[in-house]
Amino acid sequence: MPQDGDSGGDIFGPIKRKLIETKQKWARDGRLLTGETASPAKRKLPPGQREVKNWPVLDLGSHPVVTQKEWKLSVTGLVENPVSWDWATLMAQPVFEDTSDMHCVTAWSRFDNRWEGVSARHLLSVVKPKPEAKFVILKCYDGYATNIPLSAFDDADVLLATKWEGKAITREHGGPVRLILPKLYLWKSAKWLRDIRFVDRDAPGFWEVRGYHNNGDPWKEERYG
Ligand SMILES: Nc1nc2c(c(=O)[nH]1)N[C@H]1C(S)=C(S)[C@@H](COP(=O)(O)O)O[C@H]1N2
Ligand SMILES: [Mo]
């Protein structure tokens, strides 16, 4: 008696029968199965990183008190239009929103952070760096500094962030304004941002002169240099 799904081999002929047998063997062998799943737990992290759900605080230990009223950002150096922005001027710029990941050199990563602020590319369109400008030096209200190639600063996911997950960035995380540069380790994302300077020669910052890598790409594991 023919079973369901068995429409009687004879009408197919020997060639088709061979084909079906081959496919059946593949099915038994699990051919083309990767053993991977699309589960979120398998989402790719840079080498040596582990995922955290909280947001750790890391800095030199002093959390400067900078109110929105006191906050000022100067953008100088090799640019056509140097600017000094106060809070009201910053708020008058186009709002930029983006979701990105954070990778800290101390091996934690946090996926899908929703940021709001002013995009680096908008800032660049306002100040217009000169062709000689190759690096960006960031200085902060706690005395911290870090250096970034202009090519990394000039990216679609870089911003002067004022909000995280819809709320003002807290003082401990660098509020009122910090940089967010998702493609490099988080030490490049300067908190309590005060000064951005465009220069032609690189000037390693606080951690870069203390053994951290000058560039800091997590996917290349550029932790120490
Ligand atoms: N102004 C300033 N920015 C800073 C630092 C700092 O000490 N001062 N630490 C850096 C380092 S080493 C890290 S890992 C991140 C931590 O940011 P978070 O505390 O918001 O997680 O800030 C970076 N930006
Ligand atoms: Mo760090």
TrEMBL record:
Organism: Oceanibaculum indicum P24
Superkingdom in the source lineage: Bacteria
Start and end residues of each stretch annotated as Disordered: 30-49
CDD domains: arch_bact_SO_family_Moco
Origin organism lineage: Bacteria, Pseudomonadati, Pseudomonadota, Alphaproteobacteria, Rhodospirillales
Name listed for the protein in its UniProt record: Sulfite oxidase
A Pfam family: Oxidored_molyb
Gene3D superfamilies in UniProt: Oxidoreductase, molybdopterin-binding domain
Domain Oxidoreductase molybdopterin-binding: 62-207
